[in-house]
Design a protein that fits this description.
mainly alpha, elongated
Length: 75
């Protein structure tokens, strides 16, 4: 799970960094960056507080990273 999260995160960071360097990163994308991290942290914290384990705590980040990588590949 950590390996999948690492690669999906790297791809997302690379693609967003490229968008920033090219000046094509929209205000909506910047807002999305902040909002998704807050939502993932909230879901992860809830998973930890309810004792669902480490995999459940990482799952919100993995789901969002994969979705971002997939979405950004299409741009």
């Amino acid at each position: 799970m950590m390996t999948q999260l690492t690669f999906a995160s790297w791809e997302t960071i690379y693609r967003r960094g490229l968008m920033m360097a090219q000046g094509t990163c929209s205000a909506a994308e910047y807002r999305r960056m902040v909002g998704e991290k807050a939502a993932a942290m909230q879901a992860s914290t809830l998973a930890l507080m309810t004792g669902r384990g480490n995999a459940a705590a990482l799952a919100p980040y993995l789901v969002r990273s994969r979705a971002n990588a997939k979405r950004l590949r299409r741009k």
